[in-house]
Request: fold
Amino acid sequence: MAINIVPVSTRKQLKQFIRFNYELYKGNPYSVPDLYEDMLNTLDGKRNPAFEFCEAEYFLAMRNGEIVGRVAAIINRRANEKWGVKAVRFGWIDFIDDIEVSKALLESVEKWGRQRGMTEVQGPLGFTDLDPEGMLIEGFDRLSTMATIYNYPYYPEHLEKLGYAKETDWIELLIKVPEKTPEKIERIANMVAKRFELKTMQFKSNRELERRYGKEIFDLINRSYAPLYGFSELSNKQIEQYIKMYLPLVDRRMITLIANKEEKLIGVGITITSLSEALQKAKGKLFPFGWFHILKALFIKRPTRLDFLIVAISPEYQGKGVNAIIINNILPNYVKMGFKDVETNPELESNNKVQAQWELFEKEQHKRRRAYKKSIAQ
Reply:
């Protein structure tokens, strides 16, 4: 049967776009579903402040009246200007194992981008660097995380057949939590703190964290992540949204804030209890009972795994050992709380500074994901 590509133009179709992923991965033991409400907030142009500098179109692939694929086409004008490219991004791509479906979806993105003057396609990428990015190419038999994309092994096979080539890779590590902080980490942490007059900042509640440090944390992320692939600076409205999304979930024992003698933040490490299994049990829904599984994982019966969500060091302090202060401060809490291992989440394979912080730990590189690129210049 012929493939029919339908642009998403109604609320009903947007809901179908979101739910297709749930149906395609129903029963898969490794996929972690996004929360439905989070997806609505991200994809709805009226809710997501990224639309201040992005435009997007969503497409459904239909065959015989049934949805067999989906994809988002995105132009991030701020990123294009920063990196000097004319790129359309594809994101939130899912499809059955049929090359005609994946071809029709990606050709729709290419055509949409070409009509707007774009000369290349990149992806999978979202609106910003804090959206899930990169197609899984290794680690299909490992549990995914709340911050990453899971996809079947046939996805990258389709991309390569359709003329897409590697642009960059991210790797993911599984770090074993040691029973005691390595002596070298303690020594470096104390030495760096003394040399640069740095200190860890304290806060008594999540409300205080939001009020005193919320915006400063994301301003630091803007400075720290600026050189990384595809990054575009977060706007004030985006920062407000991310503060509301992430900081209420943070356990104060699992975050470290480092400041200089003027008490300006120069480093931050944010980790969170793994919510992968809780989100699987919730099946992407907070209601009627999904909230219980998430709250249970956060506050009642924690898993033994945690996720490293964010590590950000101000550029002038990068490579000077500030990471050791973060690890030295937070690691004893992991031991007390019973955590056994840490998911790093994606790190650019070229980001040697970040990967160097794990050199003293027992670790396994267990996943790899890829951003693809294709020229569509006429």
About this structure: The longest helix spans residues 206-225.
